[in-house]
Amino acid sequence: MDFVQQNLMWVALAAVSGGMLIAQMMRGGGNSISVADATLKLNREDAVLVDVRETQEWDRGHIAGSRHIALGQIGKRLHELEKFKSKPVIVVCASGNRSSSACGALKRAGFEQVFNLSGGIGAWSDANLPVTTKH
Question: Of these residues, 33, 71, 91, 93, which one is catalytic?
């Protein structure tokens, strides 16, 4: 008990971060996938990339070949992805939070292999992988 009292801030931080992880799992956020594993899926399994960031973010740079469907439009535009239901689908946003919500929507729509790019486009860029501004 002395430990908890002396380290109240750290204990609270651990509780909050644990709660956030549980909440993300409950939302059905999809399997997290590292940048390295995502590139393997793209190259070996012809995975589909879906970028759920807003248009302004997309325009500043995105992964070449990714499809842009902003998170708010996922429900309306699922028909565009129907033909990929049996393929691996990797969902990307800025950091991995919005893509977690999109993963949940795709899973509920019957997509079999849905992955959330851990760290989002930031992790992709940090790994020195290319981004493009071409549409």
Answer: 93
